[in-house]
Amino acid sequence: MALTAIVSYDGTDSDRDALALGRLLARAGASLELVYVRHAPDDLKDAPATDDGMPLHVVLSGSTPDGLRAFALENGAELVVFGSEYRTAPGHVVPQASARRLIDGGPVAVALAPAGLHERDEVPVATIGAVGEDGDPCVAETAGTLAAALGAEVAPRATAGADLLVVGSKPGTVTGRVTISAAAEYLIELARCPVIVLPRGVALAP
């Protein structure tokens, strides 16, 4: 079964970046679902449209991360894709508030797109960095699966030239949950490429 990836989408440039990353994952075989979370019934009529008319699920929830989490669990999605925080410098990765909520104990993997990703003509992936602090095999397995699907190579550690970075949750995290260490958080801040953060003991297979 193909990996199902949810793209958090509200039509902003940040969420267009998320969609661009989602399309990269689709190249690797993932199935995409766009989800628009609104906080009041009156907002439902204002759901955005994508440039190519991709179907969009509208979810009513008082909290964006709670709405995305519930949709993911109800629909068997393994990954939620976000753009970076508003006003992030182009090419940098800064998790927005909803992404941070899911990175702190969430039940699904989280992917983060650098600011401005949707403005690139293409998003080539030649090298994938794999970072698991205690050698979590799921990190290397996920990186290897993505590399095979995208025609890329896996670097043993994160490198400055990586085109995609896979980061594992820290030791001691409950299996199936996401929690990152301060070192991993700092690594994400330094990243200049898309980042995928895995739940503990879970490998993704597009």
Report what the structure shows.
- This protein has helices at residues 13-27, 64-75, 97-103, 137-150, 182-190; strands spanning 4-8, 31-38, 56-60, 79-82, 109-112, 127-131, 153-155, 164-167, 195-197.
- It starts with a strand and ends in a 9-residue tail after the last strand.
- It is of the alpha/beta class and 206 residues long.
- The chain has a single domain (4-197), classed as 3-Layer(aba) Sandwich (Rossmann fold), CATH 3.40.50.
- β6, α4 and β7 form a beta-alpha-beta unit.
Brief account:
The chain has 206 residues and is an alpha/beta fold.
Main beta sheet strand tally, sense and closure: 9 strands, mixed
Number of strands: 9
Q: Which percent range fits the helix content?
A: 25-40%
- The CATH architecture category equals 3-Layer(aba) Sandwich
Q: According to CATH, what is the class?
A: Alpha Beta
CA(first)-CA(last) distance: 8 Å
Taking Cα atoms only, what radius of gyration do you get, to the nearest Å? 16 Å
State the helix count. Answer: 5
Task: Tag the structure with descriptive keywords.
single chain; 206 residues; alpha/beta; Rossmann fold; nine-stranded mixed β-sheet; 5 helices; 9 strands; 28% helix; 20% strand
Topology of helices and strands:
Layout (H helix, E strand, L loop, with lengths): L3 E5 L4 H15 L3 E8 L17 E5 L3 H12 L3 E4 L14 H7 L5 E4 L14 E5 L5 H14 L2 E3 L8 E4 L14 H9 L4 E3 L9
